[in-house]
Amino acid sequence: MDNMTMTHYMELLASNQPWNLILFMAIPVILAEFIAVTELYVLFTRNTSGGLKRWNRYASMFVGVYFLGIFVYLFSTAVVPLTTQGLWRGPFDVIAVGFYLLGVVPLVGMALIDSGLVLRGQEEQVKLKNHAVMVGIFLVVAHIAMIFGMLSPHLLMA
C-alpha cells in the first residue's frame, strides 16, 4: 500500500505486523479497557479494598509507565524528525499522532494517583473521581486518534 495514502499513525500500526499493533495499540487499549471495566465495578460496589481494585491499580501503574516509554520513543523517533523535516501528511496526520501521544497525560495521571505520588492524603472518593476522569479522557483521546488515523490524509490536502 502506498504510505502516502495513510497517516503515520496507521502506517506505524500496519508496519512490522503483528508486533507494532500489539505494542502500540493492543497493550495500552486492552489495559485501559480493563481499567475502565474494573473502575465501574469499584465505583458501583464501593469496594476499594478488594482484589479487583488491586488489579485495577496495578494495571494503571503499569500502563502509565509503559505508555510513557511509548511517548518518549515515538516523540524522539517520529514526531521530532517528521516536524523538523516537514514530512507530516496534513492535518489528519498531525491530529492522529498528536491525540495518540496525548494519551500519556491521563495514563501517567492514573499511575501517579495509584502510586500515591499525587492526591496523597485525599479521601478515597476524590481519588476514585479523578481516576475515573483520567480513564474517560484516555478513551476519548485514543478514539479520536483512531478515527483521524484511519482517514486518508489527502482528504484535506486539495
Count of β-strands: 0
- The span between the termini is 21 Å
Name the helicity range: over 70%
Structural class: mainly alpha
Shape category? elongated
> What proportion of the residues form beta strands (DSSP E)?
under 5%
Instruction: Flag low-confidence runs.
Output: none
List the domain count as a whole number. 1
Question: What's the layout of helices and strands?
Answer:
Blueprint: H1 8-14, H2 19-45, H3 51-84, H4 91-102, H5 104-115, H6 124-150
Describe the structure in your own words.
With 158 residues, this protein is mainly alpha-helical. It has one domain (12-156). It has helices at residues 8-14, 19-45, 51-84, 91-102, 104-115, 124-150. α2 (19-45) crosses α3 (51-84).
Which terms summarize this structure?
mainly alpha
Q: Summary?
A:
75% of the residues lie in helices and 0% in strands.
